Amino acid sequence: MAPSMRDVQLTEVAxxxxxxxxxxxxxxxxxxxxxxxxxxxxxxxxxxMTCAACSNSVEGALMSINGVVKATVALLQNKADVIFDxxxxxxDEITNAIEDAGFEAELLSEPTASRTNPHGTVxxxxxxxxMTCAACxxxxxxxxxxxxGVRKAVVALATSLGEVGYDPSIISKDDIANAIEDAGFEAxxxxxxxxxxxxxxxxxxxxEMDAQLLEGILSKLHxxxxxxFDRVSSELEVxxxxxxxxxxxxxxxxxxxxxxxxxxxxxxxxxxxxxxxLEESSKMFRLFTASLxxxxxxxxxxxxxxxxxxxxxxxxxxxxxxxxxxxxKWALVTVVQFGIGKRxxxxxxxxxxxxxxxxxxxxxxxxxxxxVYSVCALLYGAISGFWSPxxxxxxxxxxxxxxxxxxLETLAKGKTSGAIKKLVELAPATAIxxxxxxxxxxxxxxxxxxxxxxxxxxxxxxxxxxVPVDGVVVWGSSxxxxxxxxxxxxxxxxxxxxxxxxxxxxxxxxxxxxxxKVGSNxxxxxxxxxxxxxxxxxxxxxxxxxxxxxxxxxxxxxxxLLTFFGWYVAGVLGGYPEEWLPENGNYFVFSLMFAISxxxxxxxxxxxxxxxxxxxxxxxxxxxNGVLIKGGDALEMAQKIRYVIFDKTGTLTQGKAKVTTxxxxxxxxxxxxxxxxASAEASSxxxxxxxxxxxxxxxxxxxxxxxxxxxxxxxxxFSGWLQDVSDFSVLPGxxxxxxxxxxxxLIGNRKLLTENGIAIPSNVENFVVELEESAKxxxxxxxxxxxxxxxxxxxxLKREAAVVVEGLIKMGVQPIMxxxxxxxxxxxVAKEVGIQDVRAEVLPAGKAEVIRSFQKGGSxxxxxxxxxxxxxxxxxxxxxxxxxxxxxxxxEAAEYVLMRSNLEDVITAIDLSRKTFARIRWNYIFAMxxxxxxxxxxAGALFPLLRLELPPWVAGACMAMSSVxxxxxxxxxxxxxxxxxxxxxxxxxx
Length: 990
Description:
Elements: H1 23-26, H2 28-35, E1 40-47, H3 52-63, E2 68-74, E3 79-84, H4 91-100, E4 104-108, H5 113-116, E5 122-129, H6 134-145, E6 150-156, E7 161-166, H7 173-182, E8 186-192, E9 197-203, H8 208-220, E10 224-230, E11 235-240, H9 247-257, E12 263-266, H10 269-303, H11 309-315, E13 318-319, E14 322-323, H12 324-340, H13 342-353, H14 359-384, H15 392-416, H16 418-426, E15 430-436, E16 442-449, E17 458-461, E18 470-475, E19 478-481, H17 483-486, E20 492-494, E21 499-500, E22 505-506, E23 511-517, H18 523-536, H19 542-572, H20 587-601, H21 605-624, E24 627-629, H22 632-638, E25 641-646, H23 648-652, E26 658-664, H24 670-681, H25 687-701, H26 712-717, E27 725-731, E28 735-740, E29 743-748, H27 750-755, H28 762-773, E30 777-783, E31 786-794, H29 801-810, E32 814-818, H30 823-833, E33 837-839, H31 844-855, E34 860-865, H32 871-876, E35 879-883, E36 896-898, H33 904-938, H34 943-946, H35 952-971, H36 981-984
Parallel strand pairs: 25-32, 25-34, 32-33, 34-35, 35-36
Antiparallel strand pairs: 1-3, 1-4, 2-3, 5-7, 5-8, 6-7, 9-11, 9-12, 10-11, 13-14, 15-16, 15-17, 17-23, 18-21, 18-23, 19-20, 19-22, 24-36, 26-31, 27-28, 28-29, 29-30, 30-31
């Protein structure tokens, strides 16, 4: 990602770095010293932030405090860095301001406390079983948020996952799991944000002696805090001090201490979750098949057996007070009702205990009513001799169909999280570690689990294999396929000092790489984390479903009672003929069947699944297409975009500046002129300075630009062809100034020269104007107060820029260009790409004001920038899109990260959001229309006219299928294809 060419600034200013994840906070070290000794700097852990708007709120709250000089909030790090005057403001006032803004705040003792402070907030993931609808989710979230030490809690119905931010010094993960279980749900811990824990599978434990040997080895390992061995699952959980012990050291220590008897395998948390999903679906399938095998005989006894004389005679054989068929039905259905159907009673009980209601309450109520009535009818017949019809099959088939629906729903929901599984599979399972002696010489190699790689390890990557982690090449050269991250199909050359990304494929030669980022810090892990976070988030539209779900069950039960009393009273008063009653039936039974059908046909689950399943599928589809979406709120906002504001450099253009023209206006030789300019620019790291260095070096030596990361200033140090430079300084927004061989040199824009009293001759001005009108940036060079030459620098447009702009216009989105470059260059570039509205000579802070001016009318504005210099504008926009992220994907201010550096992904992002919310609306239509139509039909609204009624078991089948239909509707998004520009532009190719 290239920083932008704002006001021909020829050297990099503070903060214009590569965007490393801690650089925003670390950059204040020098600044704090400059601000004086009377100021103090602290860091605050901020929990509860979910998007750039949250971090802006925290920043705004902090900056409103009198005495706060500077406040910067890092969203992904959940930290705020504050510089303030301790004589005007106290620490408590800072934390109180954050809490008043709606977030949790905890003071960190020092900038690095986030790594060493044992009392920080830990984010733990829990599998929560037994949730069936949005009401369950609200109930669990409410319970978790009330626990002492819990900072935040988010529960996702679609994945049965809960993320809990908690203080481990106040509450443990076991306490959280117990609280969930006490509420009647199932809970198991998956993983946390702690970096000092590893879960291992142990092979070789055959008895008590082996278990004791394992415990003895772990007890002697220095750095192991505590461990837990589950003898049933053979899983070993080890908590260790990462400053003393590494994860690989734990494995090596155990395997070495047992003399090879034990073999330890690292448990990938995502693999463990996938196995749990499979286990859950298998459990649901077993319950369904068991219920079906017991229910079918009950149906056969009612429908088929009367047609078979021998079987019918057996069923009507009097056995005690009842016939044999009644005994069999009662026995079979009792097993289904209270054995297989126990889960519904448990779930309904916990919901009622927590003051909420859900689908389980409806199922338990409907099936119990049918079962109890049937039992009472049998007993009443035995006592009075008047035998009423029983409806045991209704209860059994209801449970069977509901379990079928839950099984199909589990399978469908599992498919919505397929994107995470695909991303996890990109990382290789093993890696080749090079073993070195004390002198640093390679003495051997060994294959290790990729999850055991530690920072600093030297790894060997063979041709055709995947790079195991992020790192730097220390030996060898090869071409690497990075399409999984950048989308670029062309292989990238990797030489010494080149950066490589984990999960990419080494094509040809062998490489030795040094691991720099491992575990959760790798690019692939951050992508997975972003997708997971997005899938856990709730779109604002889901609040509607949550509200409906909270009142749904009480409303349905009320409607069921009204149905019962309506039909019963009408019958008693003669409102309908007795011919409508079932054989041997009465008004009570007739009314009860309608009431039960109303209870069991209503489905709150469909409403609760409408949004989260669609968001899950959409975020996964987006990740597969190189578009990372940070949440459901971003998805919802993007479909309303009216204006898209583009940065110029690095966004519309390639961000690779090249000198196209060099003109000398004095008698100076061109080579001497270029040597002078190159000498001055050798001290700069700015991309424009590098372009000038490339041009000058090529002029002198016909060299090609280097592909390595070695800086030009470092190359120049040993070159010998540059002149001596002193008093070098940067003038942000203007250029640079320095002394070259004792002569004062200025290189920059017009403003730099005019402010120094240097007149620009008309021929020079005309030349610069000509450059600017041809979309080039003109740079003036003056020596000893005389203009001696000028350079023209061009940044080529991206080949798809013009087509994408036209495509956005066709989609009803107005493109706007905002740049810090001069007006002539800006207009020339805008004309070339087809943008009508241009704002030029705008500083980075001013871009946010431009965005706010478009937002005043209530329009939704998107900002597309490079994610580094444009962070204020990305944060100010309703939807921030960081393009060309490369290895720096953790961009805090943007809601969308467009991984593939391709402007076409802007159209993909908008189109995907539109299709997702169209699908969500269809989901709500399915869910709402189902309940609006089905409930009156079940209540008997069509019975007087058409004699149409829904038996309770049919109503149960309809209810079970409604949830499945909504999930399958969301899964339809998996068929999403990126829009073809030819289709958008309505181009017909002959």
